[in-house]
Amino acid sequence: MPCTKLLISLLLLASCGDARRPQRPARHVLLITVEGLRADHTSALMYHRSTTLLPVSAQQRAEGKALSIDDLAGDGVLFSQAFAPSGDGGQGVLSIFSGERGLDQPPRPMLAQSLADKGMFCVAFVNDSNQLPPGVEAGFHSCLRLESDLDVLIEAVRWFGVHDFGNCEGVFVWIHLAGPAFPFVPGAFSDPLTREPVDFAQLHIDRDSGAHMNGSAAEREAWWTRAGASLPPPADLERLLDLYDGGVSEMSYQLWFLLDYLQFVTRSDRALDESVLIVSGVNGVELDRPGIPWGSSSEPHDSSLHVPLLIRHTGGLKGQRILDPVVELCDLAPTLCEWFGLGFPSSREGRSLLPLLGQPFGVERHSAAETEQVFLPPASLGMGGNPPRLTVRDERWRLVVDLADSGSSPLALLPESARLFDSLRNPREERDLAAQHPEQVSRMLRLLSDLRSDPEPAPKESP
Q1: CB–CB of 282/89 below 8 Å?
Q2: Residues 6 or more apart from 70 whose CB is under 8 A from it?
């Protein structure tokens, strides 16, 4: 593991330019969220395929065109252990905007409204093909719910072209993409650097494998409704992985196009340099878990919950860093609120990441004592499965516990059902080690109880 971290660090350093930049406070926020994006299938986190990297020449890098996810991660802070609260992408989005996991009661979005109250213009371009839950648009001056990632790109580019970034209080732009989420049917998109068309359904395919899977919803339904259905043969399963990776690469190319255009049309205003740029998955997806249909995301394991997360602000945040502490999507709302000098309800579950980020330029510093208080213990809490199961994950272990539908809220735990997984040594989380490590089970149950605090009561409605 240390060798892997060293290799990641060296690759990030190689992808970066000069870290000595002028120090400028952030004025804007650009949040990009992606459904179905697994951390372990991004080349930024050492996946063996270059799914999130677009190769550029030295001249293109000098022109500022190194804008792939891997380059952004190398130029910013990459969190290697970020987790969603569930495999539901909509709940992941709500967690970002509310600072709450939403496991025991619906999250209450407040981030956009807080930034709007500060004077920011808040606009969202959302692929709603998977029907995000109501409430995600709370606080936005404009929220376009669109039918495809391409529609999102077109509308966002059109808006970037006419908005004056230089003479405004600040802008909060949210871009939401379906990305590689199921069905696994990536399309075609022009290579932003060569202008040649790329067929992402064929990008990673082994044409000699003899596999015939096409990644469609109809194909999955036909497969899993057969008697005795299980995972496909290895060649067909590999083809499904190829199609999924093609979707990740397609999303990466689309993001490059979006950011390159934003940088071009706002070059005099330096909008991208003055933005806190956040790229985050909101849920993962199952690919090859035995007995689970591929493309689902309901299981309380890393495959559905472990997502990539990067934060970049070239004007005032030291980049070229990978941070290993466990963080959660609900940590983003308090982070941005503190970054821009806004209050955040202390009773909500999210924690500001600024102590970990090292205090960006223009933001009041924390003391060491505050940093220690905020980040102990580093763990994430999530839910998934049917019947529901609760899970807690620290930097090494994952505990999964059944819940009893006792009619009470929150649902009661069934400690005797606890399963323990060593997520570092067994990333697929298939070997239950509870019997071998009862001391870890006890510790993780205590940690789960500590994290599962009583929910903040919902405010009373005005008559």
Answers
A1: yes
A2: 11, 15, 42, 43, 44, 50, 52, 53
252 sits in which H/E element: helix 234-265
Closest CA to 425 of 383, 396, 445, 459: 396
**Cα separation of the two ends of the chain:** 58
Q: What is the pLDDT of residues 238-257, one digit of tens each?
A: 999 999 999 999 999 999 99
Residues 68, 75: contact at Cβ < 8 Å? no
Q: Could you give the CA distance from residue 15 to residue 303 in angstroms, rounded to a whole number?
A: 27
- Residues 249 and 303: beta-carbon distance below 8 Å: no
Distance between CA 180 and CA 164 in Å, rounded?
32
Instruction: Return the pLDDT at 387.
Output: 82
Q: What is d(CA 45, CA 26) in angstroms, rounded to the nearest whole number?
A: 26
Token pair, residue 118, equals: 């500060």
- Per-residue confidence (pLDDT) for residue 461, from 0 to 100: 35
How high is the pLDDT of residue 166? 77
Q: Hey, which bits of 156-244 come out as E strands?
A: 171-177, 188-190, 197-199
On whether the CB atoms of residues 330 and 349 are closer than 8 A, the answer is yes
Residue, of 212 and 329, whose pLDDT is higher: 329
- Residue 266 above 80 pLDDT? yes
- Dmax over Cα atoms in the chain, in whole Å? 68
Decide if pLDDT at 34 tops 80.
yes
Radius of gyration over every alpha carbon of the chain, rounded to an integer in angstroms: 22
Query: Which two tokens mark 102?
Result: 């939403």
* Tokens at 119, concatenated: 């004077």
Contact present, 82 and 280 (Cβ < 8 Å): yes
For the chain, list the domains and their CATH numbers: 2-374 (3.40.720.10), 387-451 (3.30.1120.10)
pLDDT, mean of residues 355-380: 60
Torsions phi, psi for 270 (to 5 deg): 55, 45
Which tokens is 133 given?
């839950």
What is the per-residue pLDDT across 98-147, written as a single tens digit (0 to 9) for each?
999 998 788 889 999 999 999 999 999 999 999 899 889 999 999 999 99
CA–CA distance, 366 with 241 (Å, rounded to integer): 44
